[in-house]
Amino acid sequence: MKYLVFISLILSSLSYGREFKIPQGSHRSYPVVTKAFVGTKMRITAIFDESAKYEFSKDSSSDQGDINKLYGFSDCKGPHLQNSARFGWHWYQNKLSIYAFTHVSGQMNFRYLSDVEFNKPYSGTIQIHPDKRSYIFNFNGISVQMDRGCQDQKAWGYELLPYFGGQQVAPHDITINVKLNESQTPVIVDIPYPNPTRDGRFRLNINSTERIPFYIKIHDSIGRLVYKSNIIQLMKDVPEVIQYDIGHKLSNGMYIITPMVILKDGRELPTNVTNQGHDKSLKLMILNQ
Questions:
Q1: Closest Cα partner for 89 from 67, 64, 110?
Q2: φ, ψ for residue 91 (rounded to 5)?
Q3: Could you state, in order of their start, the residue ranges of all structural domains in the chain?
Q4: Assigned fold of 187-286
Q5: For the whole model, what pTM was predicted?
Q6: DSSP string, 67-133
Q7: Confidence band (pLDDT; 50, 70, 90) for 261?
Q8: In a 3-state reduction of DSSP, which class is residue 58?
Q9: pLDDT value for 165
Q10: What is the CA radius of gyration of the chain?
Q11: Where are the alpha helices (DSSP H) in 202-278?
Q12: Predicted pLDDT at 255
């Protein structure tokens, strides 16, 4: 039996987003912002510009139809090449086309959805259907149904970023703007307080929809790891206020707090923070007296 995920793309406005760049000669996009995904729904908005046009040489023309990846998530508590759901795209026959793209028990599958235009925002929703038996992709009034590889209540994995290929690397720099429209992980962390701290003590308000291990890392302004907290177990749907005391261990200045969760397979990934857009870190000013 497979699950059902509902995916729809709707034309809408893009109030903000993160610009992903796939450099010439690369498969992967930057910046790398890997983080956990645990839930039943993902909502994105994406804009392609003219950099999405590309033509391979005659020797590689057979790869022109390969599907590139836009955004999505791994599924079934495993690697994305085993089970995942995401939107795909390619430039083929002078058209920019969107696809439903899955890996199911290691098998790659894709179905055409519709064409899109440059410099226009399109929003996508991926939602696990209550009957949990397959994926449903819907775009521009077109719906397709595809199998899913497990029967979990929720998707439990990590976000999948823009990726070029297929076999070929990007023939030139490609830019895609992607906005995540809502929280994607089970943990949301509010901004620290008091801020600035004058004695090395601060608190974090934390809400989690899952029972999950949690800790924080603190880096200084040049990116050096200067503090790592003990791991605690967050309880499901129990708001917590956690106090940290780093005393006078750190000198005065600006620091970056990164909240972390530990998935069941052992991966440690940043989680969501309140009112920070795509950034998964919190700024803390230390002014010890």
A1: 67
A2: -100, 110
A3: 5-180, 187-286
A4: Immunoglobulin-like (2.60.40)
A5: 0.63
A6: PEEEEEEE-TTS-TTTSEEEEEEEEETTEEEEEEEEEETTEEEEEEEEEE-TT--EEEEEEE-TT-S
A7: confident
A8: helix
A9: 92
A10: 21
A11: none
A12: 92
Record the tokens describing residue 285, joined without a space.
Answer: 């000013």
Residue type at position 203 = R
CA-based nearest residue to 146, from 133, 158, 155: 133
- pLDDT classification of 64: cutoffs 50, 70, 90: very high
Q: Are 182 and 159 in contact, with CB atoms under 8 Å apart? A: no
What is the rounded average pLDDT of the residues 178-190?
69
Amino acid 232 reads: I
CATH class of 5-180: mainly beta
